[in-house]
Design goal:
The longest helix has 39 residues, at 107-145. Helix 1 runs antiparallel to helix 2 (21-35) and helix 3 (38-60) packs antiparallel against helix 4 (67-97). The chain has one domain. It has helices spanning 2-18, 21-35, 38-60, 67-97, 107-145, 149-159. The chain is elongated, with a radius of gyration of 23 Å. By secondary structure, the protein is mainly α.
């Protein structure tokens, strides 16, 4: 999801802002309608469901090295991406949908919308990417936490299971 949000933060919203207000607003209204489709929703909320599941697993196994990283990743994604989307972006997108792009009175609203929406989207971008990075670090740490072949061999000998 971080890549989608990154695209909006770095060039999509800039491109829309360069258009006349009525065109930019109409394009964003169309994007907002197109976004509410299974592909995007599965990516957004499927990632959230995975974060919840990974977070629960990490709580159950908090004695393992990567648990803190997984919990941090889950919290960052859920708060910085999902909560922000539901509490901030969706209401603004809904308000934008009620406006008539050809009405000259909406031009000022559009300029403010682009600026504020994009600033908040930077947070979603950073949150999604940070959560991904933390999950990768947790995987690396999980791999580092596993015993080496030599350590496993010593453990097998101590347990009395070595080949005879």
């Amino acid at each position: 999801m971080g890549g989608v949000f990154f695209a909006f933060s770095t060039f999509v919203m800039r491109g829309l802002a360069r258009l006349p207000a009525s065109q930019g607003m109409a394009a964003m209204q169309s994007i907002n309608v197109a976004a509410v489709r299974p592909g995007f929703m599965t990516g957004l909320f499927g990632s959230a469901a995975l974060c919840v599941g990974l977070g629960v697993h990490a709580l159950r196994h908090r004695d393992r090295a990567p648990a803190r990283l997984v919990l941090a990743a889950a919290a960052i994604y859920l708060l910085g991406t999902i909560v922000l989307t539901i509490a901030y972006h969706v209401p603004r997108n809904d308000a934008l949908a009620r406006l008539v792009p050809s009405d000259p009175a909406t031009a000022a609203y559009w300029r403010n919308y682009v600026s504020a929406w994009t600033s908040a989207n930077h947070v979603r971008t950073a949150s999604s990417l940070a959560a991904s990075l933390l999950l990768v670090l947790a995987l690396v740490q999980q791999g580092d936490d596993r015993p080496s072949d030599e350590q496993r061999a010593v453990g097998v000998r101590r347990a009395g299971f070595e080949d005879r």
